[in-house]
Amino acid sequence: MGYLERLRGYLERVARAPEGLPAVHVDLAAHRRRFAAAWEEVVASRKQLHSGDAPPERWQRDIWHKEDQLLYDMRWDLPTFVEEVADQLVESLVPDASAEELGKLINVAIGFAIGAEDTSGARGLDEEIGRIAQTACARLQRSYPRYGWESPARYTFEIRATHKHADRYTLTRSGTTLLQLPGLDAVRWLLALEAAQSLGPADEWRVSPELAAQLLKEPQREVEADELLDGSWPFSLATVRRLGAMKLLQYQGQDLERGFKGWSYAAFDRARPLLEDIAEQRATPFAVLADALLRDEVALALDGIRPDPERALRESAAAATALQARMVVHEIRNALVPAQIALSRLVRELGQVTDGEPFQRYRGRVDAGIHRALAFADEMLRVANLGVEPAAPFDVSAALRDAVAGLAGELNGNLRCAPLEAAPAVVGPRGRFVLAIANVLRNAAQAVAGREGIVEVSLGVKEDALVLCVDDDGPGAPPDQRRAIFDAGVALRAGGSGQGLALVRQVIEGEMAGSVACGDSPLGGARFEIVIPLRRGRTP
User: Could you tell me which residue ranges the Histidine kinase domain spans (predicted)?
Assistant: First the structure.
């Protein structure tokens, strides 16, 4: 199983654990005791075989010598063996094993590795444990160090694809995004996450712009052991090995037959564009999304892990990035698609005049430029949407209470709210829905600001839809502006950004397949009516 497949398998297990995936713990002291006991068993069995005066045959001495060498290797590097075996057992054999069960199986693997008699009690399981033990032993004999990133649990935690709380791992948006991406895009996403958090060339968990530039400068290189010791090779060997595991380069360790005690690498051609993005620190769609999601993670940590109503009202960096991407793509398409159509019509109308070689050459460049710009816009939107909160069923009454709680100060006691006790669930991005409702409430609060006004919220069911109304007794909205106020950049109030109600339409109509409208209120001001179908809406 390749490294990327192992990461996916682990994250899928995390995603399937509703309460979070428990961290795997091993009792290294207990395994050392088992190793010592198993060693004694091997020595005792040898004495029983040769209790007389006759010396052992040469072939037996050769076998014992190999066994002794393995015993010494395991003695000095037992943690590597135990970690390797534990990871393989959990990934491929016993994903739901308790710490006690896992410990027993690791002890069986230790016994198998050094020739002691041991069993799990099941023949098929013994064969698989034997295979895993053999693989771990081969690693020890080749003196291959085990790096922290080789454990999917440790690596995904270090790059913030998972979050650990109360000894359990849960997925972050970064981890969810990885599961949505295929093949090379998944590798590109991992590199974007790593580069956004890199601590420099020596960082063993994350690729740095400096290392990427080095691999571009010298796609193939042999690194002598002395270069690691004197610092002339300042880059992390662990990170180079990880890039090899991601199939971006070929890594070769020591070659003692030709007297080479260092290591070498050769970067593959397909790695070049990915490394260029990192080395030049380009603001690619993946890099922008990685930065936004990581800023959200930091904000969540500063808020004490669990979001409160105030947190729910603050639009996340990832959601802001996606919204900005939608607006940019909309404007790009509005500008380029008509130009593309106009160019095609111009060519048809000019007829034979366009048959000349210069015209065709320049037309090809124009067409290619338009297609490239449209393709980039589509890719930017696709990547930005990966980080947006996915649609899921939620309780509208509870979401409404969160929005009201976050705006208690701005409403200043003017709110009258009587939501249904048990409103039917709707499907959509709950966090963005709370933000959208907060924007409508804030708009109403501003309409009655400075006087004893009224803001009234009602929630009801009409046929197959949920209807939410926000009324106020302010000045209302001019009839000819009631649709335009939902467009980005349109504001009726001095100092307004024109983005708040644009987000409302984006969430309600674009993401939940509903509708939002502004009209006259029975209170004398404006009424904002939000209608949400009681069925699955479109996802962002």
Answer: 327-536
Q: Same structural domain for residues 374 and 490?
A: no
Element (H, E) at 428: strand 425-428
**Residue-number span of the structural domain to which 253 is assigned:** 181-282
Question: Does 165 fall in a domain?
Answer: no
Structure tokens at 87: 């990871």
Structure tokens at 291: 């930065």
Letter for the amino acid at 288? V
Do 129 and 199 lie in a common domain?
no
Q: What is the largest CA-CA distance in the chain?
A: 112
341 in the same domain as 302: yes
The verdict on 526 and 455 lying in the same domain is yes
Number of domains in the chain: 4
Report d(CA 107, CA 33) in Å as an integer.
Answer: 10
Does residue 14 lie in a domain region? no
Q: Coil, strand or helix: which one is 107?
A: helix
187 and 242 in contact (C-beta within 8 Å)? no
pLDDT tens string for the chain (540 positions)?
789 999 999 999 999 888 888 888 888 888 888 888 877 777 777 666 666 566 666 666 666 666 666 566 676 777 888 888 888 888 888 888 888 888 889 888 888 877 777 787 888 888 888 888 888 877 776 666 778 898 899 999 999 999 888 888 999 889 998 998 988 999 999 999 999 999 999 999 999 999 999 999 999 998 888 888 888 899 999 999 999 999 999 998 765 455 557 789 999 999 999 999 999 998 888 888 888 888 777 666 655 444 444 444 444 556 656 656 665 666 677 677 778 788 888 877 777 666 677 777 777 788 888 888 877 777 766 766 666 667 788 888 888 888 887 776 676 666 777 655 567 888 888 888 888 898 898 888 888 876 778 889 998 888 889 999 999 998 888 898 888 888 877 776 665 556 678 888 988 998 889 999 999 999 999 999 999 998 644 444
Q: Verify that 396 and 499 share a domain, yes or no.
A: yes
Amino acid at 17: A
Q: Judge contact between 436 and 520, C-beta under 8 A.
A: no
Indicate whether 507 belongs to any domain. Answer: yes
Residue 161 forms part of a structural domain = no
Residues 373 and 320 in one domain: yes
